[in-house]
């Protein structure tokens, strides 16, 4: 939308008076100089818009980029399309560019030469291997009990929750420990074998030192007590990819639920108190319906499978 200002109307009246009475009389009448009238007479084409002010922005600046610098930027951008602002600026400085990084930013924005960021490669998860029967694979992990749950004489101490979850039925076994070591892991494994009502074929853990020495400094690590006990029982040991806890997703998710429904609302006055409360929480978990199990509890889902006559 074209805007008509008072200045434009003033100039039109000045030009009309000059055309009738002459430039000199118009300059006296409107208290201006002759050069001003001649300039607007030359620009006037019969429309008010021709009397509007043009941009006062200068056409040139004494510190503007030279043609050589603009060519250097354009040539470098062709070879470094994905380079970010700072990286691109450093590369230009290595070739004699002396402008600031903010000055380079304005030029790149003005000429549409900002970096073209390539899309990040999408993570494609491998299809999950569905378990066919209980004990086919059991995930084991250790959870550090939050310090805020410790009160009284045990405040400042460390308790640990060892967790084993059957991938097929989601049936869990929890046990409390005061020590986080391969000895505790071996003891937990012995108790787990006795508690689970089915034979365990494979155990999956992360690469923690309480399970394995695979990430140690030695080239040929010796088996830990936990690994030795697994071998003695004829149970396969599967290690997940280092620093990838999502591969142990079922036990990790169950630990998140423990935080929400157990540790967020419970406190412990002694280790025995922690063991008793953890046992109650474990029974509740195994008897609570779950959507992945068609709204059956892990205990009911496991019982339904075992009642079909399968022997493990």
Automatic annotation (TrEMBL):
Q: What is this protein called?
A: Integrase core domain protein
SUPFAM superfamilies membership: Homeodomain-like, Ribonuclease H-like
InterPro entries the record matches: Homeodomain-like_sf, Integrase_cat-core, RNaseH-like_sf, RNaseH_sf
According to its UniProt entry, the protein's GO biological process terms are: DNA integration
Q: Which residues form a coiled coil?
A: none
Can you give the residue ranges of the Integrase catalytic domain?
130-306
Superkingdom of source: Bacteria
Q: Which PROSITE patterns match?
A: INTEGRASE (PS50994)
Species whose genome carries this gene:
Monoglobus pectinilyticus
Q: Name one GO molecular function term.
A: nucleic acid binding
């Amino acid at each position: 939308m074209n805007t008509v200002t008072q200045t434009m109307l003033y100039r039109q009246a000045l030009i009309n008076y000059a055309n009738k009475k002459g430039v000199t009389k118009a300059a006296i009448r409107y208290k201006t100089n002759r050069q001003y009238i001649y300039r607007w007479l030359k620009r006037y084409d019969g429309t008010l818009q021709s009397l509007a002010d043009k941009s006062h922005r200068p056409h040139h600046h004494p510190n503007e980029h030279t043609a050589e610098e603009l060519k250097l930027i354009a040539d470098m951008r062709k070879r470094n399309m994905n380079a970010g602002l700072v990286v691109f600026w450093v590369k230009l400085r290595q070739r004699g560019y002396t402008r600031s990084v903010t000055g380079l930013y304005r030029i790149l924005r003005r000429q549409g030469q900002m970096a073209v960021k390539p899309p990040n490669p999408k993570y494609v998860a491998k299809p999950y291997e569905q378990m066919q029967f209980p004990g086919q694979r059991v995930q084991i992990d250790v959870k550090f009990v939050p310090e805020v749950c410790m009160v009284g004489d045990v405040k400042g101490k460390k308790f640990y929750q060892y967790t084993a979850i059957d991938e097929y039925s989601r049936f869990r076994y929890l046990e409390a420990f005061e020590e986080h070591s391969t000895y505790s892991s071996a003891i937990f494994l012995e108790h787990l074998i006795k508690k689970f009502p089915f034979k365990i074929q494979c155990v999956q853990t992360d690469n923690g030192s309480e399970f394995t020495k695979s990430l140690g400094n030695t080239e040929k690590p010796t088996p830990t007590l936990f690994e030795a006990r697994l071998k003695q029982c004829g149970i396969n040991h599967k290690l997940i990819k280092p620093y990838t806890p999502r591969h142990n997703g079922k036990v990790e998710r169950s630990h998140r639920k423990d935080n929400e429904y157990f540790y967020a609302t419970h406190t412990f006055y002694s280790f025995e108190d922690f063991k008793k409360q953890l046992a109650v929480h474990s029974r509740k978990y195994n008897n609570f319906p779950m959507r992945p199990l068609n709204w059956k509890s892990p205990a009911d889902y496991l019982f339904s499978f075992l009642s079909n006559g399968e022997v493990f």
